[in-house]
Design brief:
Order of helices and strands: HHHHHHH
Number of strands: 0
Largest sheet: none
Strand content: under 5%
């Protein structure tokens, strides 16, 4: 992205749209994360707790993006040095998530903990599967229009939430049917793998090319 004194009307319009999407992400994920962590702790479900923590991490990512987009609108151009640093911080949130869910998954397997079922967690995950794909697609569209790695990283973080919702929901449903406690930590490991992959791409700034 090149620095220019004044944004074109189209760039300004897309930047404002990206800002609104990031702000919505923060609000939605604060609520979603709090509910998920509470339900996960009550039921002893590692993947649901991981899902809630991912919501919190996604909120951090969206806050970073919001701050940078707000600065662009305020000054009329992007500060490339600050945005590269912000992108590195967003990438770090992926690695943070991967480390947490891997640790908790291993702990769950080694201690042999058996989680409880949680119908409310299932409802929460279904809601996420409805909202997050739309949000991720809208962010990706804006990011591609602007060729903006920072917005695309935020879209990737939201896409992780979609994958996490699907894998966690599948593990919960299968656990309720089969009683196989190992399904929950395995779902957590799947989440970690996705997070590491997206984190590396964000760190290396390869998101625009890969998402074309």
């Amino acid at each position: 992205m090149s620095e220019t004194p004044v944004m074109s009307p189209e760039v300004e319009r897309l930047t404002r749209r990206g800002l609104r999407l990031a702000q919505f992400t923060v609000a939605y994920n604060v609520v979603e994360g709090g509910v998920a962590i509470t339900l996960g702790l009550l039921a002893g479900l590692v993947s649901v707790v991981g899902f809630g923590i991912d919501s919190g991490i996604e909120s951090i990512s969206a806050i970073l993006v919001s701050l940078r987009l707000s600065a662009r609108l305020r000054y009329g151009h992007a500060d490339e040095a600050k945005e590269r640093r912000a992108l590195k911080l967003v990438a770090g949130t992926f690695f943070l998530l991967a480390a947490y869910v891997t640790f908790e998954g291993i702990r769950s397997l080694t201690t042999g903990e058996t989680p409880d079922s949680s119908p409310l967690a299932v409802v929460l995950l279904v809601a996420s599967l409805i909202v997050m794909p739309v949000l991720a697609a809208l962010k990706r569209r804006v990011g591609l229009r602007l060729s903006d790695n920072l917005i695309l990283a935020d879209a990737a973080e939201t896409r992780i939430c979609v994958l996490l919702s699907a894998s966690t929901l599948a593990a919960l449903v299968l656990f309720q049917w089969t009683g196989a406690a190992w399904l929950d930590p395995v779902a957590a490991f799947v989440i970690a793998a996705f997070a590491i992959h997206e984190g590396r791409e964000a760190w290396e700034g390869e998101l625009v090319e890969d998402d074309d």
